[in-house]
Amino acid sequence: MDQQGSARNDIGVEIRNQNGAGDVVVLCEHASNDIPARYSGLGLAPQDVQSHAAWDPGARAVALLLAQALDAPLVASRVSRLVYDCNRPPESPGAMPARSELIEVPGNRDLTDEQRQERVDTIYRPFTDAVSDLLESRRTTASVSALITVHSFTPVYYGKPREVEIGILHDSDTRLADLMLAEAGRLPHRVIRRNDPYGPEDGVTHTLRLHGIRNGLPNVMVEIRNDLIATPQGQETLAGEMLQLIRPALHGLQEEGR
Q1: Does this entry carry the keyword Hydrolase (predicted)?
Q2: Which of 47, 53, 66, 209 is most buried, with most CB under 10 Å away?
Q3: What is the gyration radius of the CA atoms in the chain, in angstroms?
């Protein structure tokens, strides 16, 4: 897949395998912890830039493996979610948070309307436009049966350990999530739950609504606990396990003509 490279040169957007023959599109909104130089590191300590607050560790690697296995296009953000969280609309306070869990973000404090708009125009819009353009182009060149977004989450949040290992998240469209959860018995060693550790009430389904539901596409957000994908071996293992849920679910969609 990588030999096809990126399909566009937007600084904040990475596209791989744009012409893949598969009928799934894979997204990764929190793929990078990069903070462009113009934001002066947001005033963060180096350890904060490496933390889960700045990105979803391991998520891009798993997304790449899934896209490769499904011969699917991948669209990923190249900018830290602390600069702009591409899974949030511009009006959301979480789009440019002044605080993330226990981490203060000085560079997001007291942003002016002009500063906020600059990030919308240079980070959020290029990402959402790239996804929209890809989906539109594939209406005529290839079919799209589903949209899958890949995320990771921290094992400990506000000091509380999380038991869940894989979250299958959805908004009002439950088609793909239902079918994946129906296959959870294939992974008896995993703790797999619906809309856990997050759900629509947490504002995490913006991408699903914007690009999935709006286009009538079955869609799902996959959340993987990041300690499970901290190494290349873990990433390969979890990507393989996710495919055990995804492939039969996609087949189920085709059979039911959804």
Answers
A1: yes
A2: 66
A3: 17
| CA-wise closest residue to 217 among 13, 20, 25 | 25
DSSP code string of 171-226: SS--HHHHHHHHTGGG-TTS-EEET-S--GGGT--HHIIIIIGGGT--EEEEEEEG
How many CA within 13 A on the CB side of residue 170?
A: 20
- pLDDT, tens digit (0-9, with 9 covering 90-100), for 79-107: 999 999 999 999 999 999 999 988 999 99
Ramachandran class of 139: left when φ > 0, alpha when ψ lies in -120 to 50, beta otherwise: alpha
Backbone angles phi, psi at 152, to 5 degrees: -135, 160
For residue range 44-64, list pLDDT tens digits in order: 999 999 999 999 999 999 999
Tokens 């995993």 belong to residue: 190
Residue type, 257: G
pTM of structure: 0.94
Give the sheet arrangement for strand 192-194, strand by strand. 13-16, 74-77, 24-28, 146-153, 219-225, 166-169, 192-194
74-77 vs 13-16, strand pairing mode: antiparallel
Distances (CA, A) of 47 to 56, 79, 116, 138: 14, 17, 25, 40
- Which alpha helices (DSSP H) does the chain contain, by range? 46-50, 59-70, 113-119, 125-141, 175-182, 206-207, 232-256
Measure the CA–CA gap between 257 and 31, rounded to whole angstroms: 32
CA atoms within 13 A on the CB side of 38: 8
Take residue 148 and report the two structure tokens written for it.
Answer: 């899958």
If one looks up domain 2-256 in CATH, what number appears?
A: 3.40.630.40
Q: Is the pLDDT of residue 1 over 60?
A: no
Question: What tens digit of pLDDT does each residue of 146-158 get?
Answer: 999 999 999 999 9
Terminal C-alpha separation, the chain: 28
